[in-house]
Structure formats: C-alpha cells, structure tokens
C-alpha cells in the first residue's frame, strides 16, 4: 500500500537459509526472507511455528546457528558473533512486543526519551519535543506525564510504538502487538500501525488479525513448523492458498 520501487530497492532484510535450534528442537528450517524498503510483510502461522523466533533473529534477540542474515547492510553472524553490527542493528530496528515492556518506573515521556538521550545523546529538550510529537502522532498527546500503570493497554502499546519510533528506525518489527489487548483496544493500535504503513515504514508484523493483514500487507507469509510454506499478496494467500497446510490453517482462523 506504500509507494516504493521494488526493482531498484536493495533489501533491508536479507535472510538466506537461516537455521535456528533450541537444543534439539529445530525451530527455523532454511528460512529465506527478503524485505525491501517500504514493504509491509505479515507473518502468520499457528502457535509454536517459529514466528517470534524468526523476527527476534532479525534484531539479534535470538542467535541462529547457520545461514546468512544481513540487516540494513550489516551482517549478523551465527552464534551471536559480531557485536558491533548487532549494536548498530539494535539502534536501527524498532520492536513492539505483545507485552508492552515499558519501564514501569518511568513516565511516558521518559520511556520515550531514554534511548534517544542515552544512545543518540539527544538533549532533554530535543528528545522531549520528539516524544511529544510522537505521542501526538499515536493519539495520546495528553498522557506524557503519566506512568504506564495509569494507562489502558491500548495506550501503553501506543507508547511502546512511540518509544520505538523515537529512534527513527529503518525497520519496525511487531510481535503480536494486539494479542494482549482487550478487544475494544485493538482497533486503536492497528490504526496507529496502519498510519505508519501508509507513511512508508518498512514493517514485519506477526499477527492473528487477518482483516488487518489483508488490508495492510504487501506480502503475507505462512509459516508452519519453522518453514515458510507459502507466501504472496494477501489476496492470493487468503483467497486462493496453494498448499493444503495453508488452507487448513486459514479455515481454522478466518
Ligand atoms: P510462535 O511465535 O510462532 O508461537 P516461537 O517462535 O515462540 O513460536 O516458538 C517456536 C518453537 O520454539 C516452539 O516450539 C517454542 O516452544 C520453542 N521455543 C521458543 N523459545 C524458546 C526458548 N527460549 N527455549 C527453548 N525453546 C523455545
Ligand atoms: Mg510468538
């Protein structure tokens, strides 16, 4: 849904034959994944299929054992080596989790300004202005002085989004951002994500919100037991899935 030129854009994520094990459990099996700037990729699949592990590998939260992984031109080595690239990637890739993971002892404003001040050495005023602008953008401009526990789940998740955006990420990862929310709060978070997609942010999103996926995704990837079974435009994957596994998964969730 965003403006982009697929042909001349170098991928921001370039994953080739990535394998990840937890002990004897083979969680990701020869996963190939390229994401180009401006692309919105939605990953779907059953619980335990490896969706979280896959996106956590992209910002180095999980190490992998074999394969190639390059994020924004920086190479992540197997077994978590090359810590300089890892540090760079962590500052360039924003992540929003299912459990908002806000710092409970910090105000909303301080949650958002912490990383820009510590990592980017932004001044208090400068970081504060950015925080205010971002809070405005996610629709909670009047909440800056509150603490996370004083906010609803939907508001907390929007703070988490603003906090990630404060680092001006080149790529945003979302791991089931609405799964912990009461139903009436899901819409406000999806709206903020929709807006971000419209502005051209590169996004990889794990979600069970199929209506949202259909509307926002440029590409939907179905993963089953650590393997990409099927991928394509949402219309293709949802309306005419080619593989039996995809059909059976979709019949359960749609
Ligand atoms: P999903 O996000 O699709 O539900 P995950 O990526 O969380 O799946 O998990 C994939 C598989 O890896 C599951 O079998 C899960 O139990 C296992 N797993 C995930 N994290 C760990 C871990 N830290 N240690 C051992 N096994 C794990
Ligand atoms: Mg998960």
Automatic annotation (TrEMBL):
CDD domains: ABC_HisP_GlnQ. Residues 13-250 form the ABC transporter domain. One of its GO terms (molecular function) is ATP binding. Keywords: ATP-binding, Nucleotide-binding, Transport. InterPro entries: AAA+_ATPase, ABC_ATPase_HisP-typ, ABC_transporter-like_ATP-bd, ABC_transporter-like_CS, MetN_ABC_transporter-like, P-loop_NTPase. Pfam families: ABC_tran. It comes from the Bacteria. Gene3D superfamilies: P-loop containing nucleotide triphosphate hydrolases (3.40.50.300). PANTHER family: AMINO ACID IMPORT ATP-BINDING PROTEIN, PHOSPHONATES IMPORT ATP-BINDING PROTEIN PHNC. Belongs to the ABC transporter superfamily. This is Amino acid ABC transporter ATP-binding protein, PAAT family. It comes from Tranquillimonas rosea.
């Amino acid at each position: 849904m965003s403006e982009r030129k697929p042909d001349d854009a170098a991928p921001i994520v370039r994953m080739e034959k990535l394998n990840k094990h937890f002990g004897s459990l083979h969680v990701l099996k020869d996963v190939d994944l390229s994401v180009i700037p401006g692309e919105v990729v939605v990953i779907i699949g059953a619980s335990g299929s490896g969706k979280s592990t896959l996106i956590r590998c992209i910002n180095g939260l999980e190490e992998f054992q074999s394969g190639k992984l390059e994020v924004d031109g920086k190479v992540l080595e197997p077994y978590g080596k090359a810590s300089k690239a890892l540090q760079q990637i962590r500052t360039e890739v924003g992540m929003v989790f299912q459990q908002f993971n806000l710092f409970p002892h910090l105000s909303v404003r301080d949650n958002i300004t912490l990383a820009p001040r510590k990592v980017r050495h932004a001044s208090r005023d400068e970081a504060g202005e950015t925080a205010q602008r971002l809070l405005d953008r996610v629709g909670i401009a009047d909440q800056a002085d509150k603490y996370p526990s004083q906010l609803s789940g939907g508001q907390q998740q929007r703070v988490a989004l603003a906090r990630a955006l404060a680092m001006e990420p080149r790529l945003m990862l979302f791991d089931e951002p609405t799964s912990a929310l009461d139903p009436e709060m899901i819409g406000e978070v999806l709206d903020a994500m929709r807006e971000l997609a419209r502005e051209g942010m590169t996004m990889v999103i794990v979600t069970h919100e199929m209506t949202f996926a259909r509307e926002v995704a440029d590409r939907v990837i179905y993963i089953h037991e650590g393997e990409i079974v099927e991928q394509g435009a949402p219309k293709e994957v949802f309306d005419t899935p080619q593989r039996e596994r995809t059909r059976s998964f979709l019949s359960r969730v749609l």
